[in-house]
Amino acid sequence: MIPIVREFFRGLRERGELDVIIPELLTAMGYEVISRPMIGTRQYGADVAAIGTDDDGVRKLFLFVIKKGDLTRDEWDISPQAVRPSLNEVRDAYLSGVAPTHKGMPVVVVITIGGIVAENIQRLVNGYMEAESKAGIEFRLWSGDTLTGKVVDGALREEVFPPALRTLLRRAAALVDEPEAAFAQFAQLVTEVAGDDKQDAVSRTRILYLALWILTVWAREADNLEAAYSASELVVLRAWALLAPTIARDRSPKKVAGHSFFEIVQLHLTIWEDLYGAKVLPHAASRHALSYAAWSQESLDINLALFKTIGRIAMGGLWYAWLTILDGDRPIPLDKPDKRLEAVAIALAGMIDANPTLYTPACEDQGIDIALALMLLAIIPATRNHAAHWVSQMTRAIITCYYRGSRYPVIETDYATLIRLPQERDDKLRKELTSASIIQPLLAAFAHGFGEREAIEELDEFQRDDLAHANYQIWVPNARSEAAIWLGRRNGSAMGGLKIGSDGEPVMSALRRETEQNTAYTDLSAIKLHHWPVLLLACRFYRLPPPPQLWLPLVEALGVTGSTDRVAWRSAGPRSLGGRKRVYGRLLRSVSFVAILNSTNL
Amino acid sequence: MPDPEPVPIYDQAALVAAITTGTLASFLKDAFHALDEADWTTFIANAAAAHNAGDIDVLAAFAELPEGRLGYAPQIFLENVIPLLATDLPPLTGLYEALTARQLNDGIGHYVLTGIAGWCEADSTRPMALADAAKAGTAPASLLRVALLAGLKNDRAVFLPVAIDMIAKGTPETQATAIDVVGRFDAFSATELSAVVTALEAALATAASDAVAAPLRSLLIIAKRTPANSAVGVRAIAAVATSADAGIRETIAAELMAGTAKLEPRLADAAYYLLASTEADEIGSINAIDQLIAHDLKSPRIDAARSLLDELLARRVATMKQFDSTTRALLTGDPLVRAEIVVRWLRSEKLGLFLAVHDLCSGFGEDATRFELDFATATQLEAERMARRCCALLMVFPETIASILASLLRTGPAAAFPVVERLLFDPLLINYWHGARAYLETAATGAPAPMADVLARVLKRHDDYKAGIEGVGGLRELRPSQHHRFLVATKKRDEERAIGKAAQKESIFAEIFPTSLLLYGDSVIFDYHAEPGKSLRQESPMQTHEFSHELPRVDVIDPFWSWYQRQQLLRGEPDE
What we know:
Structural class of chain A: alpha/beta
Oligomer: heterodimer
Distance between the termini of chain A: 62 Å
Largest sheet of chain B: 2 strands, antiparallel
Structural class of chain B: mainly alpha
Shape of chain B: flat
Helix content of chain B: 55-70%
Largest sheet of chain A: 5 strands, mixed
Strand order of the largest sheet of chain B: 1-2
Low-confidence stretches of chain A: 561-602
Largest interface: A-B, 60 and 42 residues
């Protein structure tokens, strides 16, 4: 356990990582954190301040000056963010401005580093601490080993984190390059910790938080964040299950449970940024780049990887949208989104354009990712055209694939079955594989919102002529959802028998009626507490179609507020069918559903 | 010292012993291998003498041999000995029936027919006796041909009228036999031939549609024999021109295929005219036409051959894959002829001709086909259509596409350059990063300015595209899981096994050679039988034959898009 934690501390960055972990550690040790790090500035040299009882039983004011990794000569006294000037600042400025309640308390200034002190400056550091220590002010050094000891003997002490759990964490960390195996170990750990009734919900969440951090740092070292990302989604959901009841009734000013959950979400978004923000989105608009990045000779792998990716990217964007709004029980169109959020949505749109496989979902299950992506693209004004184009062209691609007899969305989700699906047309099998659909009604609803009338007509005609056997459906929460959904247990209700109709009104009416009459949705804790991304995350993670309560108002709002835009959308994107083309050959000749081809103007 | 092995003796006594002990077949095999030509002739003569003296009964001995096909030596023995036998017809036909019954599935052995023909020719009374017996049904009908041929050789004054009478009045079977015999008999005098032709033309004129083939074939055989006879063939073809069906076309094609080198131009033209209406299901005709064209592409009749080829390809009657001899002739023949034909096919509106280029490229085997073509007279419309079709239909031959598009840039209309430029990048270079690119880089060197400019822009665009892809490289997080990789590997292994088995099943090598599996090592040890009783150890290194081909990349990352793009490139094609 110790080596795992020690390496974890060595791998943490200073900003947003080591300085975020330290307060959590202190809280777990029983300290009261009175000052947390602020982005861009140090508070007169100190990154973190806390009040706590020292080993001698005296309450003291602890001031932490934090530095990532090893402490070298550069980091000690030369670089702009060097430690020694910060210590001087603490001595000269911070201590003279201590709050009245803490005046007179003995002060311990703690030099906190993730690694070790380089041998060639040990005497300098020791000399400084000795020279500057006086009555009431003491200097200490917490190295990576010290922090490790405090974690292993404190937050993750054996009583709360027994050997069995440590083994799971160790295995998860060791297997990060085989994410499925690593995640399986970590998921077991999460189940064990979350189910430990001997500790309160916040304590359990804190353990999960630390364990997730440790896994993340190891994953980052291995340049493979897949396990950490999956684990972070799971931790967010399990943390919500643990904390939501407390958050709902917490009237205290500190709102510890809310803060703990927020820390978890922040960590989840940190991982999202490391993976998608840093590694994926910069390349999203490079033609075919992400398709090749899936590293597979099997086109199905590429398709599955990219649809999963757009679902996750969209989820990140939706978290940012929520952070922008921070109120309300559903996403709404934003007139002026913040730059980061808009950049995510634009990159997502670029990714769709650059990777044609995203026009041809391979299985119905991918309707979940499509729904998330459409929600994000529809929220942001700059990407609504892309969303409308994507909906109409995906519609045509699906229909074309269906007639061709391969790579149309099927109800199967089992990978072993999907890779062995015959590529030639087999009418009987095709009927079996298309006996239900969540994608078709979803596309119809968004096409309705975007005013893509031709797409609606094609979807309607496709349903009547070819997919009459298919049960078009949505998923909605039911009375059992609150108790089950955050834990991934079967829940909710399927509403089938949806009819598109030539103008889309039948499906829209059915969706409106259900969203009005369904009361279980508003009873969900994530909705009541205005944390709707948690519900979307649960849908993405446990593979449930996002319920229409979350996206239908958005679709309807597009129809109401987007009237001016809609004119622009029609003239902007590549256009499509000139009329109703039922015959496959005619469809092929008249359809041009991807911008790339249009750009070649052949 | 052990006693030396006794030298076998192949005399009359030994033959009698072999017959009585039932070892005739093996005895003859040993004798055939042991005796030289003179001794074998003596051996045959002695055997015939013994039979004629009543010491042995050769015919009965062979009729009583165990079931199964006769070996080569017994066959030669019979072929040689039968003409020497003083025997009546019934024992001979008895043997013939016994032997043909033993090898029903192998047809009638040539050796026995040759033997009986020799027996007929040895005595002028025998052909007529055999012909009468065959007509009367007391001898097999299939021996009528032997009798007629022997009769024509022995005494045409008697037998030619018999044959002509048979052509005019015989039963359908005897008529067909007589027609075939007079057609193939090549020793007629001019007068005799004239009578034969008259009889055959009469038969052709009066034959029912399903019986036209026989007189037509015989007339064509006669026509091919000397240039002076070619008018016979032209008349015969003219006679069937209005009623030509698949059978007539196959007859003409098959007959002209053999001896095409000697065909008179008029006869060839008449035949080609009729063969141009061949249909797709006439496989026999198509195979024969393939041989005709393959030959004529290297002859003065090249124009007629090209016209016939174009007609059949344009109508999609046949593909160049079916015309494999023609393909080979084009690939190994004059490059200028090949280039001229390829340009015509590429420029044609007919998709069938364009597809012929595809099949032609397949015929190159492992070497990439590269053309240097002249499109100086091509219009913009033709040039753009060619470029689109290349990218839609020749995608498995990237260097070929590159060479054709480069030829368009070098010699084609400048107005088509924008389309060519776009297609060079997408789909060509985004699918093929190496072979096609290397070709274009070479082509850019010393290219005329407009072409060099286009290629520079295309290569730059490709560089940018590759940089975008290589910039991200592989993302571990997007990689399929270990479990999924295992499932894919299992699937691929199953597919490869199935492909391997299918390939082995259809491999001509697998049919010809016995195969054995060697698990280890890089060479094989075997015994070489240098002489009887003596073998030498041989060690031979094993050979590996590898072949690699660049695959279209977009086909891998998104096969649907790749397919759709090809459909779009062919959009508006009249016959697609």
